[in-house]
Design a protein that fits this description.
single chain; about 220 residues; four-stranded antiparallel beta sheet; globular
């Protein structure tokens, strides 16, 4: 009898965006935990037609992979991933992470890398890359991360920008959708500035954007 390892770590439902984008409203993007070079590091599931699903039983949703850039969706390209977000155009952003002690090495963008999956071609590019030297360089697409990975990433639909948490220094990075770091915020004690994962109580993980009725 075949045995299947669980693959779902986190998923994010797509928002309403351009009709010409490959990702459609109601589909889900998921990252995988099957750490082998030729396995998919992330996938797109179509969960719209769930009328035949039986409560309490597994339901096989359709899985989508790109035809031209399929190898870019594998661990050999991206390494382990966790954080997922989607912008208003249907572009997918995926953050590197050493979740659960993932044994597979990081992808081409490094341990602090973020990958962008193009809305119209599903091609993968290195959006944010890692700088092993512990120096923050503003107005670049590099963040300091020696080997500790990232926490989470989210899209700010009100201001068309991204927020990213970094396990290395415990800071939150504000990033433009063109891939430029705009600013950095440390919500806790100042970082020690050494090459090491942030201490317990200093690590930022989940990040999101909220707007109340008083906001402009």
């Amino acid at each position: 009898m075949k045995k299947f390892a669980p693959v779902l770590l986190v998923f994010f439902f797509s928002n309403a965006f351009s009709q010409s984008s490959l990702l459609k409203y109601g589909q889900a993007v998921m990252t995988s935990g099957n750490y082998l070079p030729d396995n998919w590091s992330f996938m797109v599931y179509d969960i719209r037609n769930n009328g035949t699903a039986v409560p309490g039983m597994n339901w096989m949703a359709s899985i989508y992979h790109p035809s031209g850039a399929a190898t870019d969706w594998k661990f050999s390209r991206t390494g382990p991933l966790f954080g997922i977000t989607i912008d208003n155009s249907g572009n997918i952003f995926l953050a590197s992470c050493k979740l659960l002690g993932a044994p597979y090495p990081p992808g081409t963008a490094g341990p602090g890398g973020v990958y962008k999956v193009d809305a119209f071609s599903w091609a993968v590019t290195d959006f944010i890359t890692s700088d092993p030297v512990y120096v923050y360089n503003p107005s670049t697409n590099k963040i300091p991360n020696h080997a500790d990975g990232l926490g989470d990433i989210c899209y700010d639909k009100y201001n068309d920008q991204l927020f990213l948490t970094n396990f290395e220094d415990g800071k939150i990075y504000r990033i433009s959708t063109s891939g430029t770091i705009l600013s950095v915020f440390d919500p806790f004690s100042p970082d020690l500035g050494i090459v090491a994962v942030a201490d317990y109580g200093e690590r930022c993980w989940a990040v999101n954007v909220y707007k109340d009725s008083l906001s402009n």
